Amino acid sequence: MLKITNLKKTFNPGTVNAKTALNGLNLTLEDGDFVTVIGGNGAGKSTMLNAIAGVWKPDCGKVEIDGVDVTNMPEYKRAALLGRVFQDPMKGTAPDMEIAENLAIAARRGTKRKLIWGIKKAEREEYKKLLATLELGLENRLSSKVGLLSGGQRQAVTLLMATLRRPKLLLLDEHTAALDPKTAAKVLEITDKIVTENKLTTIMITHNMHDAIAHGNRLIMMHEGRVIIDVSGEEKKKLTIAELLGLFEKASGSEFASDKALLSK
3-state SS string over 24-60? Predict the structure, then answer.
């Protein structure tokens, strides 16, 4: 479903501020893989997601989604293949529009628009059913402005919006990092449910080592713009945080350096 080959990206090349963010990155995801990604500061995690989403073109290398080479495809065209949830709960929704209106926009992504009634009765009923699965009481608040929701509620709605049209690939960029622990746990529970029920191929970046081990069927660890650890199956299930840190130090030759990750152990 995703194949990244020898991807390289250097920001501000030829200057004193040059920074190599991706250094020959290679990664393949099979259909239905749920991969958690962890790494130190500046490891290239978010840069990788931006490369997949088409925010900028790589210096060299290739990105393929479901067998299609999208390396030079503009971001707006690539968006039809992807769903994305950002760290900031304020992103991904239109705050001055109703919950139902936000969901309707997501449902129409990639389709031709014409002048008809905005949201039909049948659609509202469908949105109610979808919101009820979140177990947050939002099914009775279809007309509420999204900007009035809490951070956790908003991230849950953004998850629904990102997955309404079953994207080829779901990108989660530390989507619980700005939430309190209880709310973050709820959003992760919703994430697991949506990903499993829809069999979505998913990449989830997290700074929380426990979450990286507990969620998904595969875990990768990045360092200096490339993947240095890739574990899955029973090996991942049995992994401890201490063992993960040991694997990192052995593969990188240095200690793990991420204050957020170490504090969240």
Answer: EEEEEECCCCEEEEEECCCCCHHHHHHHHHCCCCCCE
- CATH classification of the domain holding 51: 3.40.50.300
Q: Whole-prediction pTM value?
A: 0.90
In a domain, 19, yes or no: yes
Q: Which residue has the tokens 């628009």?
A: 113
- pLDDT number for residue 120: 82
139, 99 in Cβ contact below 8 A?
no
pLDDT-derived band of residue 255, with 50, 70 and 90 as boundaries? confident
Q: Is residue 122 part of a domain?
A: no
The pLDDT tens digits for 101-113 are 999 988 877 666 5
Query: How far apart, in Å, do the first and last CA atoms of the chain sit?
Result: 31
Residue 104 corresponds to which tokens in the numbers above?
């309707």
Question: What are 35's strand-pairing partners?
Answer: 203, 218
Whether 231 is covered by a domain: the verdict is: yes
CA distances for 181 relative to 51, 54, 184, 188, 199, angstroms? 29, 31, 5, 10, 26
Q: Is residue 155, in this structure, part of any structural domain at all?
A: no
* DSSP per position, 129-169: HHHHTTTSSGGG-TTSBGGGS-HHHHHHHHHHHHHTT--SE
**Domain that residue 7 falls in:** 2-95+167-263
Q: For 40-55, how does the pLDDT look when each residue is reduced to its tens digit (9 = 90+)? A: 888 999 999 999 999 9
Number of domain units in the chain: 1
**150 pairs with which residues across the strands?**
none
**Which residues 6+ apart lie within 8 Å of 32 measured at CB?**
1, 199, 200, 201
Please tell me what DSSP assigns to residue 81.
G
Q: Is the pLDDT of residue 158 over 80?
A: yes
